[in-house]
User: Which sequence fits this backbone?
């Protein structure tokens, strides 16, 4: 480590551009990626790195990684319920582990161990179900009981004398957190340095179609032709799909989170309670990063509410009674695209040349690498990779849902 | 002098009580202060200036604002980290520690970090610590331990917090001149007004600033404004910490959260004085001019012995007069402007012979080794924007006051969606738009002239009253010139070759950190923030936003307006978890018989919001208790509380049609006096709930639902009927009825003792029939049911009579060995009968055919919710099937619920229920298997703990009493 910093300290390190200056929009690209968040940037990265496809534009309404990549609470895990889900998220998790080296940028990937607490016998059952599926597929998960929980996370209130005592937990040792912004930056840097263009403050306002095929996009900076288009947005997936001419079975609801002031490290594990609608981890800056379940109504808005943090903290103090005098620094909201089965929508769409990466609800960040990698494969080869196949849009018509509700809600 | 060496003589209007001294400890040493002192003011009075160590470089930090706006003053209390020392009042015996150091606050062994600042460029942690592969695992704990500020006390007790509510016509936020005037005017017009002030006393700038040469104006105006507040409800020491939709305001006072709804809000939140940027601008002894004035006027503390004032406005001169009056020599005024303005205050400064150096700036602060306090300041002539000539003057001093500009306290306005821009004339952020329902006044709105501010306050109060429909009288006039010009210098930023020219104290960020972030391509202001972390610390950019926007504009060649600013989010100041949590109301529902269960020694378990008896007995006797309870139902008679079961009244001419559409079965021809099973599927055909429809009249059904499902069922009934418009009313009567199930071969005998107005004979009241009558004199609905597979009656009665019914039945059954049974025994009994429990034996994707419940689907009706989806899936072929299985060998362990059923590597399903049945003497259960494994007699693999594979054998359901003779007795 010392060398890199020494270089800067002695004045040899240059603050070189990590991103090329934004250029004018060209008339045409081989691939247009709508959405400059983690998923969009990752798609561009693997297209450039693995397939040499760099005549690519990422079009971003705001700034790089400013949507749900910026808003999510960075939990990475693969302890899902369905075999399809477990394989998919586990591929993502293994890509994550190597991302810092891949990027030459430290994404501060930090394995913390992830507990999903169970306060009811139904939750204990679901935990065992997930643990059994995970173990069967080689993913490290175990149903544990209060004695064992207390050994790994002694801070947790395991008293039986509370409204909802902890009866057990799904323990997932590989559960991790990472610096979310760095994931978007690393991907975008790797892509743009290879020739891909990132266009910020460039909003897509329409999808141009001809004979049932998508052929380009309208933007606030003029029209652009495209060989292939993929939408990688969050919070507005349905609106964008509507522009492209098809419907998504998605309901968009706000999801809120908040962060405390920085504190000296006291909590290593990531703690999630579905029954109490609470989750918490401590970032490497020392902040407690916290959230709960989605808001109970659908709205395309990022506004925070008072009720959210009141409810969250009431439950937080049940789990950690000594946090009463710790202070919240900031709260925010993102928009979660919820699908009926709590799994994403990936792959082809009813519109030729138009691909989709959507329906990421509350679980999109952890899937960033696998989405990028497999989207790139799909765009480059024209074939939908096997691991994406279960998440096809048509599954809803076919009644082939990938039911992850038990593993996704509040779990993040 | 009482209360410390720096304490000034007593003066009118100060916030401390000279008569009452308070002692506390700081950093292990005791300290005397006065009642009304904050931690910081008491320490300052005792000439102690270091309050904390900085986040990254561990530099000593002291008072900056005396207004709770900065992270320099964060200290540790035993149970509370990150406490603002400049606003937290002292109390006797308070134990205060510094934060973020090794050793002591005065001598931090970590202070060497400052030497490495060059080696820790912006974003350094992204550039290193990760090679070779796995290195981060080594570095992370080291980096983590360096990060963070205060410490959590894991032994701290859950404190007391609560909440209150308030409703007002007008809420005025900010008790300065504008806010007080606004409150007075609105109240005079007849409005109910709440005035919220974060400090313990009203006044705002009137409580510390000087508006005239002789220093009398502020107290005169303050008294006048206070006298005008009749009828206004005043909350001081209360902070409005955010704005939420429809003027929903969280106001925090101590451990109480007031939730205020106001028809109209006046924001008079003032402004935040901004620091200058120069070398060592963070050292103790350097503070905002307003902080020095607050020390003098509010706490009677002399902020230094010899001061230099660096300024670009008249307020710096006013501060110089205050300092001089407080016995602090003013060595020089460094005026950043080439041509200082004139005026009474400036003239007074000159009359006092204070040297004024126009066109000069503070260039470096000088401190002895350890940087514990400044000893001198060097100045330089300004030769261009941010540039200085080579000549230096040196002024020995222990205080440097900065007064070069302001930024509006726009946070609440921003939460409300108001827009903030940049005004090139005044070189300040300014309010561009204000949403409906809100009015802004005072320096938030760019008013700095005192007369104009008060006039604007009156105007705001008048318009608030008018906005809510009160007759507000004549419109008050507001002067055009509100004094915003010549307050803020456009570029008080003087980068230094040696750095330590801090632009964000919280994060130890220097000028070059912002510049380098932009040079690396992080050009968008949000990316500048996220990459450099500027504004992300505890003070949330109060002192760094303006400078970082200016530097970004400069570096990218854009207008400040185009650069924009990062989003301001709630809360305004940090707020405790406890105050948000309040008393943490956790609703719990008890049935009418709850206390009887406790008396009988029941172990209660949660069932939604309810508590239900799991079994009766001690935890170590659980298995024996459950088995005994179950066997007693089989052999004698048992009693279970089923009050938590959902109850819905469906009435109207279309009641049968309504159920016919909602549920899978057929209800049009259901006879009155009979019950029928109900299975609810959602639109995808997935099983959502079940229950029984009891037809008590042609147009009247009493519908049961599961304990956990009833709220959803009720909601979806209302939702459906909003579309169907059938002539039917639905009411949720769950809480109105208590219910028991008395079950077992002797249940009829017991019931007969208490129920004489219903013929209970099997011929008159057969299985699946329902009756109304009285039991123990209580009006009751009786249903013959068979969930546990024995002769049994559900008895539903008004819940107020639940305990009486329970007692009567327990009494009547004594001779027949009646005993209560809990949920655990019920689950075992129903499993022996092969009855499923929704959401245990089904999941989020189970359709009726998979659960072997095709029999519950009405074949002849045109429609029910989910029907079409079921047809499609059945036509396609189902992929799993729920079967009954048994394991005869007692040596094989009982599989746990959710152990997988597998075929080689493939997961085909899972065990959903399993139990060693005392009645049957073997293990029985339900499991999902592949359809080709579902024939009775087929063996399949179950993967149990440790990966061991055991065999289950499919058997026909039910396991017990195959011809259902017992329940139909």
Assistant:
């Amino acid at each position: 480590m010392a060398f890199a910093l020494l270089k800067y300290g002695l004045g040899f390190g240059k603050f070189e551009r990590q991103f090329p200056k934004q250029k004018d929009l060209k008339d045409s690209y081989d691939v247009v990626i709508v959405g400059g968040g983690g998923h969009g940037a990752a798609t561009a990265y693997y297209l450039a790195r693995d397939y040499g496809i760099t005549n690519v534009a990422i079009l971003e309404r705001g700034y790089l990684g400013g949507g749900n990549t910026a808003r999510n609470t960075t939990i990475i895990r693969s302890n899902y319920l369905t075999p399809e889900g477990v394989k998919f998220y586990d591929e993502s998790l293994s890509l994550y582990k190597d991302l810092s080296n891949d990027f030459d940028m430290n994404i501060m990937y930090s394995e913390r161990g992830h507990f999903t607490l169970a306060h009811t016998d139904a939750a204990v059952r679901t935990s065992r179900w997930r643990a059994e599926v995970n173990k069967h597929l080689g993913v490290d998960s175990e149903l544990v009981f209060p004695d064992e929980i207390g050994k790994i996370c002694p801070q947790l209130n395991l008293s039986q004398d509370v409204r909802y005592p902890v009866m057990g937990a799904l323990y997932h040792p590989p559960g991790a957190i990472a610096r979310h912004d760095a994931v978007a930056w690393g991907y975008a840097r790797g892509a743009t340095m290879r020739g891909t263009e990132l266009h910020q403050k460039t909003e897509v306002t329409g999808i141009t179609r001809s004979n049932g095929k998508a052929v380009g996009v309208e933007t606030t900076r003029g029209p652009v032709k495209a060989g292939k288009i993929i939408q990688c947005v969050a919070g507005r997936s349905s609106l964008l799909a509507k522009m492209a001419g098809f419907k998504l079975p998605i309901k968009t609801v706000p999801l809120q989170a908040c962060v405390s002031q920085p504190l000296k490290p006291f909590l290593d594990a990531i703690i999630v309670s579905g029954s109490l609608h609470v989750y918490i981890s401590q970032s490497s800056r020392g902040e407690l990063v916290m959230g709960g379940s989605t808001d109970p109504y659908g709205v395309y808005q990022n506004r925070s509410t008072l009720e959210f943090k009141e409810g969250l903290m009431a439950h937080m103090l049940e789990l950690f009674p000594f946090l009463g005098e710790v202070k919240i620094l900031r709260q925010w909201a993102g928009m979660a695209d919820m699908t009926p089965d709590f799994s994403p929508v990936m792959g082809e769409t009813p519109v030729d040349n138009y691909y989709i990466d959507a329906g990421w609800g509350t679980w999109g960040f952890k899937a960033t690498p696998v989405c990028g990698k497999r989207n790139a494969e799909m765009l480059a080869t024209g074939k939908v990779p096997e691991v994406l196949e279960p998440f096809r849009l048509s599954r809803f018509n076919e009644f082939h849902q990938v039911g992850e509700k038990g593993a996704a809600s509040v779990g993040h | 002098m009482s209360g410390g060496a720096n304490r000034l003589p007593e003066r009118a209007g100060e916030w401390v009580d000279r008569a009452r001294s308070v002692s506390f400890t700081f950093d292990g040493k005791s300290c005397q202060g006065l009642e009304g002192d904050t931690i910081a003011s008491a320490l300052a009075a005792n000439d102690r200036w270091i309050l904390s160590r900085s986040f990254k470089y561990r530099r000593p930090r002291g008072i900056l604002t005396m207004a709770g706006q900065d992270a320099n003053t964060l200290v540790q209390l035993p149970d509370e980290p990150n406490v603002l020392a400049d606003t937290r009042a002292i109390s006797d015996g308070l134990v205060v520690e510094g934060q973020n150091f090794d050793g002591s606050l005065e001598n931090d062994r970590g202070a060497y970090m400052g030497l490495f600042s060059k080696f820790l460029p912006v974003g350094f942690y992204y550039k290193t610590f990760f090679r070779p592969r796995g290195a981060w695992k080594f570095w992370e704990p080291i980096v983590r331990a360096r990060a963070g500020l205060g410490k959590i006390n894991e032994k701290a007790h859950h404190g007391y917090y609560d909440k209150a509510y308030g409703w007002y016509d007008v809420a005025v936020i900010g008790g300065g001149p504008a806010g007080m005037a606004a409150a007075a005017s609105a109240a005079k017009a007849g409005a109910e007004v709440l005035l919220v002030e974060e400090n313990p006393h009203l006044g705002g700038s009137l409580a510390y600033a000087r508006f005239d040469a002789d220093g009398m104006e502020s107290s005169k105006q303050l008294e006048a404004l206070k006298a005008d507040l009749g009828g206004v409800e005043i909350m001081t020491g209360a902070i409005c910490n955010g704005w939420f939709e429809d003027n929903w305001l969280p106001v925090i006072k101590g451990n109480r959260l007031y939730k205020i709804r106001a028809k109209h809000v006046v924001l008079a939140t003032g402004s935040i004085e901004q620091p200058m940027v120069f070398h060592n601008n963070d050292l103790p002894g350097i503070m905002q001019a307003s902080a020095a004035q607050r020390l003098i006027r509010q706490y009677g503390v002399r902020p230094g012995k010899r001061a230099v004032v660096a300024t670009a406005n008249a307020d710096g001169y006013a501060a110089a007069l205050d300092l001089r009056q407080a016995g602090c020599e003013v060595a020089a005024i460094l005026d950043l402007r080439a041509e200082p303005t004139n005026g009474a205050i400036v003239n007074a400064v000159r009359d006092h012979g204070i040297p004024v150096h126009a066109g000069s700036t503070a260039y470096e602060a000088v401190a002895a080794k350890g940087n514990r306090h400044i000893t001198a300041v060097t100045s330089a002539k300004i030769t261009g924007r941010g540039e200085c000539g080579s000549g230096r003057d040196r002024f020995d001093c222990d205080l440097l006051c900065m007064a070069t500009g302001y930024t509006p306290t726009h946070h609440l306005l921003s939460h409300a969606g108001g827009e903030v821009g940049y005004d090139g004339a005044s070189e300040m952020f300014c309010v561009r738009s204000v949403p409906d329902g809100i009015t802004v006044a005072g320096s938030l709105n760019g008013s700095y002239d005192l007369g104009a501010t008060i006039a604007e306050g009156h105007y705001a109060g008048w318009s608030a009253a008018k906005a809510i429909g009160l007759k507000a009288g004549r419109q008050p006039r507001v002067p055009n010139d509100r004094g915003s010009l010549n307050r803020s210098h456009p570029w008080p930023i003087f980068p230094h070759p040696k750095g330590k020219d801090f632009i964000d104290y919280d994060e130890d960020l220097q000028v070059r950190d912002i510049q380098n972030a932009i040079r690396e391509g992080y050009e968008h202001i949000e990316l500048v923030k996220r990459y450099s972390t500027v504004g992300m610390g505890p003070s949330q950019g109060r002192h760094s936003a303006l400078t970082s926007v200016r530097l970004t504009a400069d570096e990218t060649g854009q207008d400040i307006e185009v650069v924009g600013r990062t989003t301001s989010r709630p809360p305004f100041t940090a707020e405790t978890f406890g105050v948000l949590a309040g008393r943490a109301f956790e609703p719990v529902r008890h049935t009418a018989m709850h206390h009887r269960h406790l008396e009988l020694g029941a172990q209660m378990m949660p069932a939604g919001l309810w508590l239900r008896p799991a079994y009766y007995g001690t935890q170590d006797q659980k298995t024996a208790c459950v088995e005994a309870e179950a066997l007693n139902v089989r052999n004698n008679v048992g009693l279970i509380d089923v009050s938590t079961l959902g109850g819905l009244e469906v009435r109207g001419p279309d009641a049968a049609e309504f159920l016919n559409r909602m549920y899978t079965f057929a209800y049009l021809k259901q006879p009155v006096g009979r019950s029928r099973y109900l299975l609810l599927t959602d639109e995808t055909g997935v099983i959502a709930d079940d229950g029984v429809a009891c037809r008590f009249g042609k147009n009247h059904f009493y519908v049961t639902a599961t304990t956990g499902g009833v709220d959803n069922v009720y909601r979806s009934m209302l939702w459906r009927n909003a579309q169907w418009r059938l002539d039917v009313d639905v009411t949720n009567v769950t809480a109105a009825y208590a219910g028991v199930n008395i079950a077992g071969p002797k249940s009829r005998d017991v019931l007969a003792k208490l129920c004489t107005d219903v013929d209970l004979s099997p011929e008159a009241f057969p299985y699946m029939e329902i009756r109304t009558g009285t039991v123990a004199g209580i009006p009751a609905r009786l249903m013959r049911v068979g969930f546990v597979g024995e002769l049994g009656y559900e008895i539903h009665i008004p819940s107020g009579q639940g305990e009486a019914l329970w007692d009567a039945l327990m009494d009547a059954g004594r001779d027949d060995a009646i005993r209560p049974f809990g949920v655990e025994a019920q689950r075992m009994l129903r499993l022996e009968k092969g009855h499923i429990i929704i959401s245990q034996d089904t999941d989020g994707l189970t359709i009726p055919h998979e659960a072997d419940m095709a029999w519950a689907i009405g074949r002849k009706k045109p429609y029910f919710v989910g029907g079409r989806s079921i047809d499609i899936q059945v036509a396609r072929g189902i992929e799993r099937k729920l079967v009954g299985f048994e394991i005869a060998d007692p040596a094989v362990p009982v599989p746990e619920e959710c152990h997988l059923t597998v075929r080689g590597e493939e997961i085909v399903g899972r065990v959903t229920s399993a139990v060693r049945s005392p009645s049957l003497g073997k293990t029985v259960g339900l499991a999902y298997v592949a359809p080709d494994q579902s024939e009775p007699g087929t063996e399949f693999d179950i993967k149990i703990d440790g990966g061991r594979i055991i065999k289950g054998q499919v058997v026909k359901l039910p396991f017990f009493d195959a011809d259902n003779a017992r329940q139909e007795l």
